[in-house]
Structures
1.
Amino acid sequence: MGYAGEDRVERTEVDLSPLVLATRLAPHWEARGQFGAGRETLEGVLDDGTGTDAERAAAHGAVAHLAMAQGDLRAAREANEMAIVLYEADGDIRAAAGRRHALAMVLLAAGDPIAAEAHCDAALAVMVAVGDARGEAFARSSRGLVLAARGRPGAGSDELLESLRAFRAIGAIGEAASVLANLGNLSWDMGDVARAARFHEGALQLFERLGDRRGAALCLNNLAVLAQMRGDADRAIELAQAALDAFRAAGDRHGEAAMHCNLGAMWEDGGATAEATASYQQAAARFDELGDPGRAAHARQQIAALRPPASELSPREQEVASLVAVGLGNREGVRSMASVTLV
């Protein structure tokens, strides 16, 4: 329900205002990991002050969704709250309830499950009252995650399973896949790695059936981590590489960059320093291209942590390390660095 309300605008593509057009493009930006570009565009047209309450509410909802994907919880909360106010002013209690469900997820991520539960309950009550089966299923899914966070994983699992049944009943395959993934994450948190893997494998099958490469990539990444937890390093790397390929095929550059970072960590855990360094370098370069200096810096910190302290290097190795530090790029320097084997 990240973009609830966008289907309410009854105009031809030719007549779309910049605000409505930008809102409709939000899923495109999300699928390609272009969260910042999408937010900048949406916030720019919102600043113009144009559009009806419903159109502006939908745009704020799209901003909230992209901000959440970025991890900007404050912006996601503020945008969701603004969308709720505008939908309620427009008299659309169903759309407002949809935003409450989204706000609950932001509050949960921010560490406030009590407030999150209140919004889930309010959203669920509205969806039941108006007979919106799809909205009710979304609300139950969110409530399941909140209950689990409040120390009631059994009740949370029951809500998620009820949500799964509801989505299957209305043929909402993509939503069912997302619930399966959430059940996998909950099982993971409860320490049942085998059950978590089964749920993620089920979600992967549905995402692949839909041709949802990004959803499949997320499942493959989770399965890679679970394989690593089981001690199957080779399978973990294989799944992580498949996740990287899926992110790349989906055009999700942010997911691709994050996956390079995850691969770096897996290679590092296996003692493959050269492969880890290469993966972290790829991650840093892509985060630079995406204008994400924080994550780029993190990737470079991981590279630096792979290098042994200078006191542990031989004089020749210290010389090579110095050349690297000053960015020596001539061919002889490269040859000398390649000839050194660190112990």
2.
Amino acid sequence: MLNNKHRLFLAPMSGITDTSFRLLMRGLGVDIVISELLSAESIVNSHKRTLSMLNIDKKESPIGIQLFGSDPNVIRNAAIICKDYGAEFIDINMGCPKRKINKKKSGAALLKDPQYLKDFLTIINENLTLPLSIKIRTGWDTKNADEIIQIAHETGVSFVSIHGRTQSQGYDGKSDWDYINKIASISNIPIIGNGDILYANEATNILKNTSCHGIMIGRGALLNPLIFLEINQLLNNKKIDINLIDIIKKYYEIVLQKIDIKVQGIKLAKIYFWFSLRYENAETFKKDIFTLKDSPQKIIEYTLNHFNSNLPLTQQTSPNFLMGGHG
């Protein structure tokens, strides 16, 4: 499924990577986008809100839908429905560390029993006409990604995204890129590395000096929506002809076109707040912007005024922000 042009991935992030944010990022240098994690069971049961989250614009292509669940037959049936909505591949969430997901034997809990996982993936991929990928961690409490990728290869999985922590780590410590590289170097299928990539130079170093086919960025794109363009600039000497003010305006236009009017304001406020975290006065911005959540027009006016004031970058942004938001 992947070719040499498919190297930069937007990570699935709960509550963030809806059609509006995916469209924004597709215009800002990312190669492949993936939806936030969606319940396969809710899709099969025609849950109205979940089905609304399957809205896909053709400009998002190539796009995958990320599913979670414990019943492989339900996931396969949900995948068939996703194809009708425009999904070009299906990604199975096997990395979410949240207890409410894991206790239902889904997310990272699937890494506990490799033999069960083999049967699980075999059932999902049986007669599935879309490529299948999986997003995993390095293991549950000990690292066993080498075993998992072999199972993925045997069951016809197209590529594997690996977050460089175990489930038991949650988001503590640092992503283990040495281990990800080790796995990528022995894998028969493409490996996409994920975890703690916040700067373009970090990304290019991984792409140039590891065996990873590509990289997946989540929080880094919220802190700096220009990150994929900056990576392309470093790799291919592509000039960046857009700035943060342009991006703020573009996202406003997309939200007004694509998002239900009832939630446009809160959607704008959330994303603009994340954009603000690299700059001074982010807490003041947060306090003010959410008081305007009922008025998209007031939000865009306030945000443009805030970012037009030549704010200095802050050194205080914690790399732990949004921990737990990844699908």
3.
Amino acid sequence: GDVCRTPLTAERREAETRYSSNASSAAKQLSSAEGHLNKLAVDPALTEAEAALKDFRHSSDAVGCAESVRVISKAQQIKAFLSDDEDARSLQPEVMVTQELEKAKASSDRAAQAILYLALCEILSFGTADKGAPSRAMRDKALEAGNEAADLFQGLAETRMQA
């Protein structure tokens, strides 16, 4: 029975421990970022979410990356709305989400795609700081992204996210 089992080498064990540690640290950073965002503490939210994204990328965790990008884009959007600075107000967080979505599509990661479609829906339905409320075209695009997210979550049997 044990003949086909690959022995756990010290190097492999160390790599798995490091991955687990990075993922755990990144998850804590992301949770902290979401907490900051809920309090509208945008700069600390961005710092934590960007650090989490770096760690998730290092450990090749596409879903963690997608969640991090979702938080970063939402923080950027809030920052743009709260800012008097024209450069900050013209930030377009949907660009970052769209780029990450293309990566998720290329790797066929349906969970990451679903999270990113949801992020896109949230961003587009909120409008932009420089233009105000979303246009009809933006709302239509938001609805389309929301439907894509719902379909993907349904296919993944993510009942808590389908709502």
4.
Amino acid sequence: MSDAITETRHREIAVEHLLFWTMRYVEEQHPGLLDSLEASLDKLGDPTPGSDKNDHAVRHIAAKMIAGARG
């Protein structure tokens, strides 16, 4: 695996971790955040043009993150 790919993977893991715990913290302080994020999923999509575009996969990942933050 190239250094750039490894660094990108590490960055993605770190960002997901920080986002997940931020979502949990904010939800505890301001209930309703996760409901609002869940309601916004229909606006989320994959910006990739062409055959690699998969809006459903992107929404599925986001939905799993929200479900995980709910505990």
